[in-house]
């Protein structure tokens, strides 16, 4: 199976002008659409260049290979999944209970995964055989888990979460539950669920697992 270009290869193609930055971003947007349409193995560099309204040769001014641009698509999508709220009104508030914070985080993750389910399906597939793509996924998952772990430790100090629970294991296990559930539901089509019900059930599972007190 093809492998993603090594770390550091992209640095050789980093544009220095604003126009170059915009053109490179346009190529990444175009490549994302091509990967969604054709998956990874069938996608072609010429398709991405055509979709971005650039010549085939222009592609190599910014990227060395299809693998390299795919890795950039992966990094951007993974960042989106765990990024802070898009605006101040969609995030948590200081008066929100821990349960409400979990609910908001689950809703935001599921909503973003649903919106990007086609490209996430390609990423999930490639991550199973490509070490570099899998590393990007694991790095983002660890970042998400560490954030959850900090919240669990804080709630334990406040007496809201059972102190016998290992916060590291809990954060990893509950995060993996949400991630795998998202893939089975929104990519694999394993079963159909009502979106709001899925959010509530995942939130209840989090709260019950932590023995969370409101």
Give a verbal description of the structure.
- This protein is 70% helix and 0% strand.
- The protein has 214 residues and is mainly α.
- Helix 1 packs across helix 6 (117-127).
How would you sum up this structure in a few lines?
This protein is an all-alpha fold. The chain has helices at residues 18-42, 45-51, 56-62, 66-82, 98-115, 117-127, 131-157, 167-187, 195-210.
Helix content: 55-70%
Main sheet specs:
none
What is the alpha-carbon Rg in Å? 20 Å
Shape type: elongated
Strand content: under 5%
Instruction: Tell me the number of strands.
Output: 0
What class, by secondary structure content? mainly alpha
Number of H/I helices = 9
Mean pLDDT: 89
Unreliable stretches covering 5 or more consecutive residues: 1-12
Distance between the termini: 49 Å
Order of helices and strands: HHHHHHHHH
Defining key terms:
214 residues, disordered N terminus, single chain, mainly alpha
What is the strand and helix layout of this fold?
Elements: H1 18-42, H2 45-51, H3 56-62, H4 66-82, H5 98-115, H6 117-127, H7 131-157, H8 167-187, H9 195-210
Helix pairs in contact: 1-2, 1-4, 1-6, 2-3, 4-7, 5-8, 5-9, 7-8
């Amino acid at each position: 199976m093809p492998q993603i270009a090594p770390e550091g290869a992209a640095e050789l193609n980093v544009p220095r002008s604003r126009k170059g930055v915009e053109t490179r971003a346009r190529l990444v947007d175009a490549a994302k659409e091509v990967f969604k349409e054709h998956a990874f193995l069938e996608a072609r560099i010429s398709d991405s260049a055509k979709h971005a309204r650039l010549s085939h040769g222009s592609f190599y001014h910014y990227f060395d290979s299809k693998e390299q641009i795919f890795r950039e698509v992966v990094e951007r999508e993974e960042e989106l999944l765990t990024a802070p709220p898009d605006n101040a009104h969609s995030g948590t508030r200081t008066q929100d209970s821990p349960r409400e914070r979990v609910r908001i985080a689950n809703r935001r993750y599921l909503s973003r995964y649903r919106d990007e389910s086609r490209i996430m399906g390609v990423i999930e597939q490639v991550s199973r055989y490509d070490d570099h793509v899998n590393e990007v996924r694991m790095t983002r998952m660890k970042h998400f888990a560490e954030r959850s772990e900090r919240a669990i430790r804080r709630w334990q100090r406040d007496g809201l979460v059972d102190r016998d629970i290992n916060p590291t294991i809990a954060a990893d296990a509950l995060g993996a539950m949400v991630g795998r559930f998202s893939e089975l539901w929104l990519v694999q089509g394993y079963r159909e669920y009502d979106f709001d019900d899925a959010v509530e059930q995942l939130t209840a599972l989090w709260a019950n697992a932590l023995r969370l007190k409101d």
